[in-house]
Specification:
Elements: H1 2-19, E1 38-41, E2 44-47, H2 63-92, E3 100-102, E4 108-112, E5 118-122, E6 127-128, E7 134-135, E8 167-172, E9 178-182, E10 187-192, E11 205-209, E12 218-223, E13 226-228, E14 232-237, E15 241-246, E16 250-252, E17 255-257, E18 288-290, E19 293-295, E20 359-364, E21 367-370, E22 373-375, E23 400-404, E24 407-410, E25 413-415, E26 493-497, E27 500-503, E28 506-508, E29 516-519
Parallel strand pairs: 8-14, 12-15, 13-16, 14-17, 15-20, 16-21, 17-22, 20-23, 21-24, 22-25, 23-26, 24-27, 25-28, 26-29
Antiparallel strand pairs: 1-2, 3-4, 4-5, 6-7, 8-9, 9-10, 11-12, 18-19
Length: 524
């Protein structure tokens, strides 16, 4: 409309001049010649009309009528042209205050200002028009309070490792404390004091959330930005699953450990002891007497992303049941693994099922980059000690690992492998116990090896594309075989959610297996 008013302001003075008379005729030429877009009328260049070289004339009608007609025609022509231009502009700019729409490529939300102009706001997750135009957000898995993603702030004090040597950064999900230790586990720095809520010094907020269905509680740490340096391992401690929320980008160059530290240590990050959990391996059946003593069965391996391995036994009734798959592929709720079953026998030393891996959920509001490693291993089942010859325990399953961000890049190693089953008979430390589900990509954790000559080995754990724990040998083909081994633990679960996902690293369980998958964000 500004163009319309400008042209009207030019035409009106010209008409006033013509009404006063110029003493010229309609056939007079204009000197100098009229420019493009103007016509000569009674020696005066006026907008519009025929412009043959700038010397065209308006035909017909009296002077004033012709002038007014020309002026009206000009205004009408410019009005039409301007209306068309403004019509296009209206499609882009003309609007009523409060109107909203998505940009053509759905990457921005356009809202109408009080002045009637469209203003654009980029939408990180895209723009949707149902029920009204809005920038999309997403429902973070297992986190009902979306404000927790932005609850971390810049702390009043910054910190860094003293040097490039390895360090452990321990997150205690029991009380929210965060502490730095050197590689011999000597304390170096208290980064965050214990307590629920915000922490001004570190800027890290700690929150406890419950989950349905018997899943472990969540210990949620909120950051403004999470960066794990190459020489730092985030080490979970405490019974709750570890959740790390970063409002901005998150980068893991070092490691995150939420697995089993050892069967002589308490489970961490929601992990479970032998025989405990929704997919726990079954304990061995009753032992039976024989001429040289009792025959003992092995415990079943814990299940989670797959089935645990069946324990060994001279009779079928003696074999510990394989643990069953548990949880969901989406890791909603955020589940951890289950422990292996106990081997048969009566002495308290050994024959315990392995402890499972715990679970972690790492979320970024921008890009989550994992160039380091994340490990949620289960521990192997135990053999027997203290002079006894009994059945071996089943291996614990791997735990759960969930990544979620608009953009996820994984070039490192992500593993949640189950532990091997313990061997039967009198054990030798470091030899007869099942191996933990270490960061193996292809070969599963081996079961324990018997050393007495009248016992059997344990079953292997899980690794790579194989998500089930290995079954222990039956230990029944020879009358001299008395003590069976435990079954191996199954793989845990891995889930990666994002709008874009670039996964070129190694995963065990492998993507495409029943225990590892990708998914979209739940947009709204």
């Amino acid at each position: 409309m500004r163009v319309w008013n400008l042209l009207a302001g030019i035409v009106v003075p010209v008409l006033a001049l013509l009404a006063g008379g110029c003493g010229a005729s309609s056939s007079d030429e204009c000197h100098p010649a009229c420019g493009a877009g103007f016509t000569c009328y009674y020696g005066v260049c006026v907008p519009g009309g025929n412009t043959d070289g700038g010397d065209g004339v308006v035909e017909g009608g009296d002077a004033d009528a012709a002038a007014d007609g020309d002026a009206d025609a000009e205004i009408g022509a410019d009005g039409d042209a301007d209306t068309g231009a403004d019509g296009d502009a209206d499609a882009d700019a003309g609007c009523s205050s409060g109107d909203a729409r998505c940009s053509g490529d759905r990457t921005a939300l356009e809202t109408c200002s009080a002045g009637g102009a469209w203003e654009s706001t980029p939408c990180t997750l895209g723009c949707a028009g149902d029920p009204v135009a809005h920038c999309q957000d997403w429902d973070i898995s297992n986190i009902p309070d979306e404000t927790l993603l932005s609850a971390g702030v810049e702390g009043t004090e910054s910190w860094a490792t003293p040097d490039e040597n390895p360090y452990y950064l321990q997150f205690n999900t029991a009380d929210g404390a965060v502490a730095l230790y050197d590689e011999s586990w000597s304390p170096v720095l208290q980064v965050r004091e214990s307590g629920i809520g915000p922490d001004e010094r570190s800027g890290i907020q700690f929150t406890v959330l419950t989950q349905p269905g018997g899943a472990p509680e969540l210990g949620v740490f909120s950051f403004q930005r999470l960066d794990v340096a190459r020489n730092v391992t985030v080490a979970a401690w405490g019974p709750r699953a570890l959740v790390l929320l970063s409002e901005e980008d998150a980068t893991i160059e070092g490691g995150v450990f939420v697995g089993c530290y050892g069967n002589d240590q308490p489970p961490v990050a929601g992990g479970r002891e032998g025989g405990v959990g929704p997919g726990a391996g079954g304990g061995a059946g009753p032992s039976i007497p024989d001429v040289s003593g009792f025959r003992d069965g092995g415990g079943g391996g814990g299940g989670f992303g797959g089935s645990g391995g069946l324990g060994g036994g001279y009779l079928e009734t003696m074999r510990g049941a394989a643990g069953t798959p548990a949880g969901t592929p989406e890791l909603v709720p955020l589940e951890a693994g289950s422990g292996g079953g106990s081997g048969g026998g009566s002495t308290p030393e050994g024959r315990r099922g392995g402890t499972s891996g715990g679970s972690t959920q790492i979320v970024s509001g921008g890009t989550l980059t994992v160039r380091g490693w994340v490990d949620a291993r289960g521990c192997g089942g135990l053999s027997t000690y203290g002079g006894a010859n009994e059945g071996g325990g089943g291996g614990g399953s791997g735990g759960g690992i969930l990544f979620e961000a608009p953009h996820v890049q994984v070039t490192g190693a992500i593993t949640a492998n189950g532990g091997g089953g313990g061997a039967g008979g009198e054990g030798v430390p470091g030899y007869s116990d099942g191996s933990p589900g270490e960061m193996r990509v292809v070969d599963p954790a081996p079961g324990g090896t018997q050393v007495t000559g009248y016992a059997c080995d344990g079953g292997s754990g899980s690794g790579g594309a194989g998500v089930a724990g290995g079954g222990a040998p039956e230990c029944s083909g020879d009358a001299d075989l008395y003590n069976a081994g435990g079954g191996g633990g199954s793989a845990g679960r891995i889930r990666i959610n994002g709008l874009t996902r670039n996964i070129t690293g190694v995963l065990s369980p492998a993507l495409g297996s029943p225990a590892a998958s990708e998914g979209e964000l739940h947009l709204r």
